[in-house]
Amino acid sequence: MVDANEIFAEIDASAGMVRFLEEPEQYTSPAALHCLNTTIQASFSLAQKLRAVNTQVSLDPAYVGKLNAREKGDRFPEDPSDLDAEPQSLAYSFQDE
Fold it and tell me: What residues have CB less than 8 Å from 89, skipping those under 6 apart?
């Protein structure tokens, strides 16, 4: 991991010791700023997609019905075949739009 620059450390093989160091990058270059900005934009995009899926799931009649049944303590659905059915209406994808 040290050779791959995944962590920063000095290895003293004769003493059998490892000394961990601070990352030398100061993030003051334009390339570092661009990388940071790209990561932030990707995070915002993901957060927006998660909010959209959360809204979609929260408004799904099948989900709301099952949630209400659980809160009322109704252990059995109105239709017994629902016990074996796959929740098809709750299948959402995270594909880029």
Answer: 60, 61, 62, 63
Q: How far is CA 5 from CA 58, 65, 75, in A?
A: 44, 51, 54
Nearest to 92 by CA among 47, 41, 58: 58
Place of tokens 């949630």: 67
Give per-residue pLDDT as tens, 18-42: 988 887 777 788 988 898 999 999 9
For residue 16 the two structure tokens come to 């059998």
Specify the pTM: 0.48
**Unique residue bearing structure tokens 């601070």:** 22
Phi-psi region of 63 (alpha: psi -120 to 50; beta: other; left: phi over 0): alpha
Q: Which of 61, 50, 65 lies closest to 89 in space, CA to CA?
A: 61
